[in-house]
Please model this.
Amino acid sequence: MTVDIAGFRTSLRSGNLAEELLRPGRDVVLRSGDGKLTRDELRSNAGQVAGGLHELSVKAGDRVAVYAANSLDWVTAYLGIQRVGAVAVMMNPDYRAAEAEYIIRDAEPVTVIADRPRAEIIEKLGLRIVALEDLPLGATPPMPALTPESPAAILYTSGTTGRPKGAVLDHGNFLAQGRGALDVWRWTSKDVLVHALPLFHLHGLGMGLHGTLLSGGSATLVPFTPAAAVAELTRDDAERGTMFFGVPSMYQRLCDWLEQHPTDLSRVRVFVCGSAPLPPALFERCARLLGQPPVERYGITEGGIVVTNPYDGPRQPGRVGYAFPGVEVRLGDLDEVLLKGGQVFQGYWRNPEATAEAFTSDGFFRTGDVGEIAEDGTLAIRGRLKELIITGGFNVYPREVELVLETHPAVQEVAVAGLPSDKWGEEVTAFVVPSGSPPLVESELIEFAHERLAAYKCPKRVVTMEALPRNAMGKVQRSLLVK
Ligand code: AMP
Model:
């Protein structure tokens, strides 16, 4: 049987995001500490915000930035931007003044929608600022004529190794990503997502928000704490969460909490984990404490969430599984993970050089991640090409070393990076958060590595830390370790 991949991709991408996300209905779609919204309310509010933006002369294709913490108003503002056909520039609410200024100078939004604390930060940039708490309202304009190729949002890469780049995601990208998520995780209108992820990031936006709106189900926005997440997942009413999405550091905290407060979570349908590697020991701990291991998935801002362990199992620790529908994954030079499909972005904002470098001659996106594909077709991520350590002329992928060190009982968490060294060029260094018991002894940990890895891969030094520096998505910021 031949599968019409191109036709399939076109159908996954078809439509206009605002139209698809803002389906009418009287059921509640979003809840949060600050209220509830039914589908009809969300649709009408987003329409009025689109009207307000229209009256401020925002046109289809203009950029409008959102610089605010998660809230129902954030969602309304974002959907208002989509409804007027503008391009949403997503800003991390944790950005300090200089970071915010960099994004604004790069994206050149015509308007910034900011909540009160962030408005203060950017007031001096001389832009038009719209208060999130007081969104402009106007008569709902007609639905703009957009195609799946029309840009919907600019998401900045996390920039753990350099300046963030603006990835332009189009309507078709978001629709294909969201539809893919419904399929792979069997997401239906009966689901309630406990949404504790930042909305500005692809994980919380493309999966959490878009998936909820496309599924016909609902979501509860909660600022993440283990107690708050568990409370939502164990409610006694129809609002009880059936799905939870998190990053590994959230699962770590959830497990720590559950160890102190054992709770039956067997009614939760699925836990999904990604954005950073889920250590196998944490996978096992989750299996025990949550009652099931999380479904680990892999994604990247430029491509969406594109690979996942199978919902129906087996969920393999240390592996990220199979491609989403309509996505092709293969390995390129140096085993780099390459992606193609309707989910994958078209390029970086005003950066043709970076865009050209990001694609192979046959149109695959170069993720910069190093992968391995097993005989069963599942993918494992071995690290980032840029994190490759070259020591004494040998190549070392930090993740391989971390996987070994993570199995030592004195290690709670570890990141491996190369420090400059006259002798080796770079010296493999382990940054370890000790578990506390047994005590961490540097020479023992190095010896432990030598029993399991070739000598050149073993750490020459162990640096103990209270916590690893991580960004909002739980990714270790290696640039801070090696500076
Ligand atoms: P971002 O663009 O912020 O979503 O970051 C994407 C990067 O996160 C990928 O290129 C990977 O390096 C990393 N990543 C995401 N999911 C996983 C995973 N399940 N395992 C290992 N690394 C991951």
Remarks:
- Residues 157-158, 202, 274-277, 296, 298-301, 320, 367, 369, 381, 384, 473 surround adenosine monophosphate (CB under 6 Å).
- The longest strand covers residues 411-421.
- The domain at 388-481 is CATH 3.30.300.30 (GMP Synthetase; Chain A, domain 3).
- The chain has a mean pLDDT of 94.
